[in-house]
What we know:
- By secondary structure, the chain is an all-alpha fold.
- Helices cover about 65% and strands about 0% of the residues.
Amino acid sequence: VKEDRSLEHLTNQWGPIISYWATDQWLSVDRWEHYRQLDEYLYRRSDPEWRTQTTVEHSRSLATLAMFVIDNLRSAGFDLNGELILRAIHVHDNGERTTTAGDVAYALKTTNDDQAELQGFLRELRDLDRPDLLDAYLLQFVSDDSWTQFATPIQTVLRRLKRDQLREGIVFKFLERIDYCFYALHHWRVTSRPEILTWVLRNQVLKIDQLVNQFEALREILWTPAVRSDCQAWLDDHAAIAVEHEVNQQLMQATNLATT
């Protein structure tokens, strides 16, 4: 009988990587669940066309956008570190799978959530022995200055990234905010329910404006004056839609009444 071959070398060399590989795929977190609940509350029924998005799907959609945006910026003469942006796309939400909160809706997210997710990501880095990925993870915070929730060593890394990779940080955040709008627009196109798109545009339009003001080349890529005008026209036409926070409060009260 042929003896089994030992997998010692394969296990030793591939073990940490394959653990991360498996976790990256199968511990994915559902996104947009909060908005699905708000949508169902408003219409008193679910829509069969509604679908959430996993963090894996979100990263893939960001990578798709990045191909177009980075190539366009390079063609315009901007020398960007595309590898850093793509790594950031891959790891930026990994902390969500380490917390009990999972994905937190943009309008509800706090600095405490950011801190908890960072700590979870740092634990993953220790297991993987890849401290270089910290730069990629932190790129999502570079275009902002609200870093006081992070420890001094993390703030030191962020200051270096802001000095050396600010454009990459702006492009990453631009991609993520545009992806939010794409998702909400798709939701409206398949359900004809306008609330989600309205809330997302209210949350994102001015933020995207700020990013584009920091890197004017983005004004010719996905955020042209015509697109910006359409977004504003939508917001003006749907100004009567309730504020997201108010609907969320109503949902919470209704949930509390149903459980008491």
